[in-house]
Design brief:
InterPro entries: BHD_2, DNA_repair_Rad4, Papain-like_cys_pep_sf, Rad4/PNGase_transGLS-fold, Rad4_beta-hairpin_dom1, Rad4_beta-hairpin_dom3, Rad4_BHD3_sf, Transglutaminase-like_sf. The protein has 830 residues and is of the alpha+beta class. 32% of the residues lie in helices and 14% in strands.
Length: 830
């Protein structure tokens, strides 16, 4: 047995298995390798390395230009959407979807505001006699009933002034409730994303061009008014589209409605809020179950379908309802989740709407009470897009025909009517949530139905005070210097960039003139107000109150260039309480005892110098602007071991620099061989300044003593470069220098004219040479063609193959067959 098993083991053949296989070397490429490296010349306006280095000048200008272009593009986009909101077909689509109950309230509002003519209200009969209405009552009986009521009759095209804006606000509340229940949010809207890196921008641009459109990545896309109408038919879209369509609905009803847009452009600053999000904020997280989303409608028990049928409510007088009605309403609302919406609709035109008691009170429901039951059909819920944005980007302003004032309405996000100051303040962005979502208040623009636009930002600022929330986000008003003949700054003029941008949209042209409503609005709601000065009571002062006070000042609040005069005396003391330390007292001085101070160098550039014996009022550390000065300060500090300080002097401690008169035509010079001439008073008596170019060479040629005039400095690249403006010479040498300068100037002009003349002659010769070359080439071509064609005649023995005949078929197949044979080439054969 053992021998047989051994034999069997010997018969088995084992294979060698390589445990650590070495990959075979890939084949070496044949030929030369060509690498193409393209340098990216674009400038990144982000800070990818997180360094503390500030932005360069070109980076700042790029962000400013990007911000300005983005604002203008958003303005144009909103102008297009505003024109779409005036489309009659779009308005008809929205009006056809209104429930009958709201249609009745709309017609009543239009009738009270004189928007319906009498001919539209008269019920015409088919036969002879008096016309009857659908209820069987004659028109005369209806008119008699109106005369019996104590109400006043309103003439056609006149506004019923009774009740003020109560009817308008009541109708808007009905429309807001209907819209909130009817419109579905299905895509994200516009939002501020921030500045992205170049790599991210390339990826997003490529995806936008090549990939299939994704609303979560590329944003909502509506390419034309046809797609805008489709959104109105389906009653779905983003929050922005919802507000825009609601504006179109109000215009279709007959209201003067503005489309208001809170622009969200990329900023021009360099704070962290201007950087892009790490993740796409438009993309939804994990998909929630339909029960957890905010459904417009929820399914009820099928067993209660009979009870869900709409029932007409009994008519009652006034605004009150019976106890049974209230009990039935409470039973209907019983069992509803506390987070569900109060207003409901089935998405169909004839579906009943349930309104709250406050909404019923707002409407003049003296004819009937609207009863609502829950529909049986289930509507898909709105998707939770832009839930991190607590404030709207679009809303509506409605003009009251009675008070001629605009009232903001938001049916989407805030669901509020700004009929008072508290509701109006809710439109201003604020809070940590809006800061994280990069939601800002910078430019709020209202677009009117006539295509004009208006800056209405002041209405939504707290107490109408500027800059308010617009600070750091709205491009500020610039002070542009205006120079005089001598190149000095004469004054400053204010330049409002956004005022220039919106000037192309505002009213004031012959086609769209300004109205009295515009003037009234500018004088009231849009009038900027100055911040009121807070009066601090005696004994209740704080450090902040002293810092902003115009009467008192603490020494700790003095700026670097501010100091107290030597005669200043404190008027009182202020007790500062520290944490865990004893209270300290600080002296309080009058603000009028504070003066501005400057260093000796700064005063010297203004033509002044400290008086002899004056001591500086203050000593502060040096501010080195150039590399050489920094090196000098570092060496001095190393040698002394102390911080180097410079003295500051007030204007009362300085006097004008008046140099002594020159002697023997010798001009005084500084250590650099120049003369400082920052102001006219620094010119020595007996000398004259000649600010002409080339005068230094003339002085050297005439062997006249001179000094180059330094009139200022230019700072750049950590260097100070002096500005040289001509020379200073003695008065007796002025005429000689000017005579030579005029000769040199005439010679210079002659040489420049000669240079331009030669350049013109050379250019003319090139043109003539090109023309001659073209003519010669044309001649050669024509001569060669004549040789080939023998001057238009065929030479002897030249055989030409006859080309094949090309038969063109006419519209009629056999109309011209055989014309050449039988017809004689177009002539009649005899």
């Amino acid at each position: 047995m053992d021998d047989s098993s051994d034999d069997e083991d010997e018969d088995i053949e084992f294979e060698d298995v390589e445990t650590n296989p070495v990959p075979a070397p890939s084949g070496l490429p044949s030929g030369d390798l060509e690498l193409t490296l393209t340098r990216d010349t674009r400038v990144s306006i982000t800070n990818p390395f997180g360094t503390k280095k500030g932005p360069s000048k070109i980076e700042r200008q790029i962000r400013i230009s990007t911000h300005q272009v983005h604002v203008q593009l958003l303005m144009f986009h909103n102008a297009i959407r505003n024109s779409w909101c005036c489309d009659k077909e779009l308005q008809e689509i929205l009006l056809r979807q209104l429930p009958p109950a709201i249609e009745e309230q709309v017609e009543r509002w239009r009738r009270n505001n004189g928007l319906m003519r009498k001919k539209d209200e008269v019920i015409k009969g088919k036969g002879k006699g008096k016309a009857k209405d659908p209820k069987g009552k004659s028109a005369d009986a209806h008119r008699g009933r109106e005369w019996d009521q104590p109400a006043a009759i309103v003439k056609d095209d006149e506004v019923d002034m009774k009740g003020g804006d109560r009817r308008l606000f009541g109708l808007m509340k009905l429309l807001v409730s209907y819209w909130k229940a009817r419109f579905k949010i299905t895509s994200p809207g516009l939002r501020k994303l921030g500045y992205m890196s170049l790599q991210t921008l390339d990826e997003e641009s490529k995806s936008f061009r090549e990939d299939e459109h994704d609303p979560e990545r590329h944003g909502e896309r509506i390419r034309d008014i046809g797609e805008f109408r489709d959104h109105a038919k389906a009653m779905e879209g983003s929050r922005d589209v919802s507000a825009q369509l609601f504006t179109a609905l109000l215009r279709g009803v007959g209201m003067e409605a503005r489309l208001v847009a809170n622009l969200q452009p990329v900023g021009f600053g360099w704070s962290q809020t201007e950087e892009a999000f790490e993740e796409n904020p438009r993309k939804l997280g994990k998909t929630k179950s339909p029960a957890r989303l905010d459904p417009i409608f929820s399914d009820e028990d099928d067993s209660g379908s009979d009870e869900a049928a709409p029932k007409p409510a009994p008519k009652g007088k006034g605004k009150g309802t019976s106890k049974k009605g209230k009990a039935a309403k409470s039973n209907t609302n019983h069992g509803r989740k506390p987070g569900s919406r109060h207003s409901r609709g089935s998405g169909l035109k004839d579906a009943p709407i349930n309104f709250s008691d406050s909404e019923e009170d707002a409407v003049e429901s003296d004819d009937s009470v609207i009863d609502v039951t829950l529909p049986k059909k289930r509507i898909l819920p709105s998707l939770p897009y832009d839930k991190d944005l607590p404030f709207p980007h679009y809303w509506t302003e409605v003009l009251s025909p009675i008070t001629n004032t605009y009232t903001p309405v938001d049916p989407v996000v805030l669901v509020v009517i700004g009929d008072n100051q508290a509701n109006l303040a809710r439109f201003e962005t604020r809070g940590t949530k809006s800061e994280k979502a990069k939601q800002v208040t910078a430019y709020i623009v209202g677009h009117s139905p006539d295509g004009t636009a208006k800056d209405v930002t002041t209405r939504y600022l707290k107490q109408h005070q500027w800059p308010g929330r617009t600070k750091r986000f709205r491009f500020p008003i610039e002070k542009v210097p205006v120079y005089n003949r001598k190149g000095k700054v004469a004054r400053y003029e204010e330049k409002d960039w956004f005022k220039t941008v919106i000037s192309g949209y505002v009213r004031g042209t012959r086609k769209c003139p300004r109205t009295e409503i515009d003037d009234h609005e500018d004088a009231t709601d849009l009038k900027r107000k100055k911040a009121e000065k807070k009066v601090v009571e005696e004994g209740k002062e704080t450090l902040q109150s002293y810092k902003s006070s115009e009467e008192f000042v603490l020494e700790r609040h003095l700026r670097r260039e501010e100091a107290l005069v030597r005669s200043a005396k404190h008027v009182k003391t202020f007790t500062v309480k520290g944490k865990g330390e004893d209270a300290t007292e600080e002296k309080v001085f009058l603000r009028r005892d504070v003066v501005n101070c400057k260093s000796m160098e700064t005063w010297h550039k203004e033509g002044r110098a400290p008086k002899p014996g004056e001591e500086p009022l203050k000593r502060v550390p040096y501010r080195a602007a150039t590399t050489n000065r920094k090196r000098e300060l570092a060496e001095a500090e190393n040698a002394s071991g102390e911080k180097m300080l410079q003295g500051l002097y007030s204007m009362e401690q300085t006097d004008w620099i008046i140099p002594p008169p020159i002697e023997n035509g010798i001009i005084p010079k500084n250590s650099f061989g120049n003369i400082d001439l920052y102001v006219d008073s620094m010119l020595p008596e007996g000398a004259v300044h000649i600010p002409m170019r080339g005068t230094m060479k003339i002085c050297k040629r005439l062997e006249i003593d001179y000094a180059e005039a330094v009139t200022g400095f230019e700072f750049g690249h950590r260097m100070a470069v002096p500005i040289i403006s001509g020379v200073v010479v003695a008065e007796e040498n002025y005429e000689a220098v000017m005579d030579e300068w005029q000769k040199d100037e005439a010679e210079r002009v002659r040489k420049e004219d000669e240079k331009r003349r030669k350049a013109a002659i050379f250019a003319g010769k090139e043109v003539d040479a090109d023309a001659d070359a073209d003519a010669e080439a044309q001649k050669i071509i024509m001569d060669k063609r004549d040789e080939e064609m023998a001057g238009g005649f065929l030479p002897d023995g030249f055989n030409v193959e006859e080309p094949e005949e090309k038969h063109h078929r006419s519209f009629f197949p056999v109309a011209h067959e055989g014309d050449d044979e039988e017809g004689g080439g177009g002539f009649v054969v005899e």
